[in-house]
Amino acid sequence: MKLRILGCSGGIGEGGHTTALLLDEDILIDAGTGVGQLGLNALLKIDHVFVTHSHLDHIAFIPFLVDTAGCQRVKPLTVHALPATLQCLKQHVFNGHIWPDFSIIPNARQPYMRYQPLVVGESIMLDGRKITPLPTHHVVPSIGYQLDSGQASLVFTGDTSAHEPLWEAINRIDNLRYLIIESAFSNAKRDIALHAKHLYPAMLADGLNKLRHDAEIYITHLRQDEADVTMREIIACVTRGHPRRLLSGHIFEF
Question: What is the pTM of this model?
């Protein structure tokens, strides 16, 4: 497996792009503004989008992807997500008002897009690649993903707060090589992080103390206005591993 980071910022501006990860050439994990860095030929190769949750910074470019590539595809783009997330997309995005309903365009038998509900803990196999939804805790229904090549695994948590079932699931992975986990706010904004159900450095450190694997740790969803401060706090309070800042363009092979 080869995972390319298209976007991993907590916002836009100054080169920042919101969350989008390209797995090999045909799978997106989330579809934030980072998708806009891809050319048309690359967009046409994407067959699946696995969504962590319904927030705009993680789904913003699904409508543009379908609209741009749909008429040139030979099969529908499949959007995988929790049922609650799919319902949000149907009701609030692909509703004929915000964007056309591409699940019935050009017709219901041969649409440009189809929905595939996921269940936490139930894996999907795609050409030998195993993708498993993991339990997370956010202000809307959310999941992370374990990407397993058979030789090694990468975990992407998406947006989450402290959640014991997540650490239990991660610790059951016997071939974990990489962990990409968020810290959306600095310690000074602890109250905002708690309200928004995001991690901040001290809470992240508590979670990482539960990790029983010697994995490489990367921090995503940093806000541009305090990314450096947040990373310094993480390095100061995390007592195990050497967390690094995730950057657009970073490539993981496993």
Answer: 0.97
